[in-house]
Amino acid sequence: MERACVSFATLSISEYARRLASADPTPGGGSASAVAGALGASLVSMVARLTAASPAFATHADRMRIVAERGERLSSAFLASSDEDVAAFDKVSASYKLAKSTDAERTARTSAIQTALIGASDVPMHVVELALETVRLAVELVDVGNQNAISDAGCAALFAQTAARGAALNIRINIKSIKDETRAASYESRLSDMLAQIGILTEVGVVKVERAVLRS
C-alpha cells in the first residue's frame, strides 16, 4: 500500500538507498538503473551550463543552453521511469497471483500476465532510449564542452550506459516469458541496436576523456 503513495523519485538519496537495501523487491534494479540515468543526464546539464558560462566557449553558448535544458528534461524522464518501473513490477507480481482454479480464470490470468510483461518491458526500453540520447549529448560535450569539466562529461556517458545495461537485463528477463515471439524478437532487435550504439559512443567518449586527462 505504501508504495502506491510514494514517489521514489522525490525521496532523498539516503532514503532511496535505504529502501533499495530493504527486503522489499521494489525499488529494485530497474528503478535504480533509471536513477543512474538521471544522474548522467544531470551531469550533462551541469557541463553544458559550465560551458555556456565560460567566455572561452562563447561560440557554443546557445547550443550549450539547449543541451542543458534537454539534460534537465532527460533527468526528469529518467526519474519518472524509476517510479514507472516499480508500478510495472507490481502489475506483473499481481497478475501472477490471480486465481487459476478454472479454465476461465487461467485464461484471464495468462492474458493479464502477458499484458503486464509487455508493460514491464516497455518501461526499461524507454530508459534505454533516454540513455542513448544522454550518451550522445555527453559525447558532444566531451568534444566541444568546457575542458575543465571533461571528466564530468565522461561520467555522464558512463552513468547513462549503466542505466541502459541495467534496463536491458530487465527487458530480457521479461521477454523470455512473452508468448508473442514476434513481439519478443522486436524488443531484442531494438535493444541490441541501441546497446551497440551506446557502447560505441561511450567507449569513444571515455577514451577521449582519458587521453585529455593524461595530457593535462
Fold and architecture overview:
The chain has about 220 residues and is mostly helical. It has a single domain, classed as Four Helix Bundle (Hemerythrin (Met), subunit A), CATH 1.20.120.680. The chain has seven helices and no strands. The protein has helices spanning about 1-5, 15-20, 30-50, 60-95, 105-145, 150-175, 180-215. The longest helix is centred in the middle third of the chain and has 42 residues, at about 105-145. The radius of gyration is 20 Å and the shape is elongated. The mean pLDDT is about 95.
| Number of individual domains | 1
CATH architecture verdict: Up-down Bundle
User: What is the percent of helical residues?
Assistant: over 70%
Shape designation: elongated
CATH topology: Four Helix Bundle (Hemerythrin (Met), subunit A)
Q: Approximately what portion of the residues adopt beta-strand conformation?
A: under 5%
Structural class: mainly alpha
The largest β sheet comes out as:
none
CATH class annotation: Mainly Alpha
The count of β-strands is 0
Helices, strands, pairings?
Elements: H1 2-5, H2 13-20, H3 29-52, H4 61-96, H5 103-144, H6 150-175, H7 181-215
What attributes characterize this protein structure?
Four Helix Bundle (Hemerythrin (Met), subunit A), mainly alpha, 216 residues
